Amino acid sequence: MKKVIPMLFAAALLVTACEKTPDTGKLDDDYLVYTNYDDDTNFDKMTTFYVPDSVLIIDNSSNKPKYLYGTPASDIIIANYIKGMESAGYVRTLDMDDADLGLQISYIEDTYKFRYYNNYPWWYGYPWYWQFSYWGDWGGWYWPYNITYSYTTGSILGELVDLTPTRGTSQHLKVVWTSYISGLLNSDGTLNTTEVQQAIGQAFSQSPYLK
Amino acid sequence: MTTLKKYSIRLALAVVLFAGLSLPAKSQVSLDAYYNVDWQFNMPINKFADKASGWGMNFDAGWYLTPDIAIGAFMNFHTNNQYVDRSVVNIGHETAVYTDQQRSLYQLPFGVTALYRIIESEWQPYVALKLGAEYANMSSYYYIYKSSEDSWGFYMSPEVGVRWYPWDNGMGLHAAAYYSFSTNNGSVMGRDMETPGNFGFRLGLAF
Known about the structure:
The structure holds 2 protein chains of 2 kinds.
Chain A: H1 4-16, E1 32-37, E2 48-50, E3 55-58, E4 66-68, H2 72-87, E5 91-92, E6 101-108, E7 138-142, E8 155-162, E9 168-182, H3 193-205
Parallel strand pairs in A: 2-5, 2-6, 3-6, 7-9
Antiparallel strand pairs in A: 1-9, 3-4, 6-8, 8-9
Chain B: H1 2-21, E1 33-45, E2 56-64, E3 69-91, E4 95-117, E5 123-142, E6 145-164, E7 172-182, E8 185-188, E9 191-194, E10 197-206
């Protein structure tokens, strides 16, 4: 019997010493909203913002930048970001030179080249990402906080850049706010526009430091 | 995987039970030692994952230095989970996440046991104190992501129980109640866990 007991212990231990994974089926399978901001930026002093009329598409196939322009999806996405900014107290301007903040919006259609990077420069590897030169005479990007999640297909990335500092090739353009929204696809692969509206609204409501 | 684990646990218990019942007649395998394998029900006291569960096991072995006093070794493990409804989770000062989540706390303490047997008979009530180290893993599952953190701490657990040897084949039954405390700490998805405590009981086989 004494020889049997250690074997019984070992057998029981081998087949049972596992962590019981929780039932992720209980999760509501709804969207996720992730926001970051630069604590050193004084958002109170910003008054105006500029938003491009297109949404950058991040995918795997393109050999040049692709944009969503004038589609129902892009219109809803842009309109809801504008609504959020205006609700926060910022005034939209159609002249980029008059803007304190720039809002660039991307739609992640494919994650093959765009997964995640924990540190600056986190977008490296996707050549058609927003260019800092789009926003004026800047010398590069500056990312004041880390991004610690991986991207998924069907996600929206909205970022605010600070356009107030003096520009120049030695100056870096700072991204002062990020909203990453995931889980917006219907089962047929189309965007759930109702959730797009809710999720963008949530991104602003959980960012009370904006204004 | 969950189903596989469930059947694995049943299989292990069946093997132990069969082996025990088929042993030659004897009131206790060794009067100088004790062994037990237990199923464990744990009620955690912490702010991270506080839902009671039966997802755990305990293993004990010890040797009597005197008819009343024994020293031994132990190891047990347990998982407790908690569903957290959709809310804004602040992580540090600059990050916020809006999601629901399943939090999970896995505890695996091991160490030495000091045991005092109150009565030496067919019924053997005892009191014991377990001391050792605890490995703990805190995890949060949300959307398609998982965040987790490991920690180590000092572990202490007073226990009262009884071993009952009603048969002549060397096998008995074991029941115990315990409180445990460890110095583990950590933070996952904005929720801290400091010095987790637990209440619980164990039912199993004694040899």
